[in-house]
Amino acid sequence: MGCPLPATRFRQDGSRLARRVGWLPAARCPPPAARCPLPARHAAARYPLQSGANETLELPVHFMHLGHMADYRNLEVWQVAHKLTLNIYRATVAYPKEEMYGLVTQTRRAATSIPTNLAEGSGRGSDDDYARFVRFASGSANEVEYQLLLAKDLGYLDEQMCSPLASEVSRVRSMLSRLNQTLKR
Question: How many domains, in total, are found in the chain?
């Protein structure tokens, strides 16, 4: 049996369309006591639908509290990780050509893996799955941290360039740790 709170379609002007989009699977519907403690006016969130230009999809909030982010780009940790990835790409341009298929590629892939795992995990079916991808992202952040240290020690990055990147990585790791703790609750 599905969750008693259906996902519903709305037009942009706020009027409800007659047809329901569907029920949430029972496995994803928490018991009533575990539902979102937000006031009733915050009981659902609306997201634009690509299928109809003037329609939005309303999802019950407790659906999103299970790690089902409607848009991973709204996560602050994803935004910071994305910015870190862009900065890593800019920094690795200055590496020597002989590192193009070595440290450059490895550092870029590890940096890219952080927001990628957050995006993939946010679309998973449970908090446990999502937490697993958050841990993968955390491991990638550790990789990036070491690769920056290696690049600095090899003389590819100076202290002025390495220090801000290292502090960005540290911030991302801290945010990932907090997200992981939140998902375990």
Answer: 2
Could you give the CA distance from residue 79 to residue 117 in angstroms, rounded to a whole number?
13
Does residue 61 sit in helix, strand or coil?
A: helix
Q: Would 1 be classed as within a structural domain? A: no
H-run or E-run covering 8: strand 7-11
How many CB atoms are located within 10 Å of the residue 130 CB?
A: 24
N-terminal to C-terminal alpha carbon distance within the chain: 25
Report pLDDT digits (tens) over 43-86.
Answer: 444 444 444 455 544 444 333 444 445 578 888 999 999 999 99
> Is 30 a residue whose pLDDT tops 50?
no
Domain membership of residue 34 as a residue range: 7-64
CATH (domain of 80): 1.20.1440.60
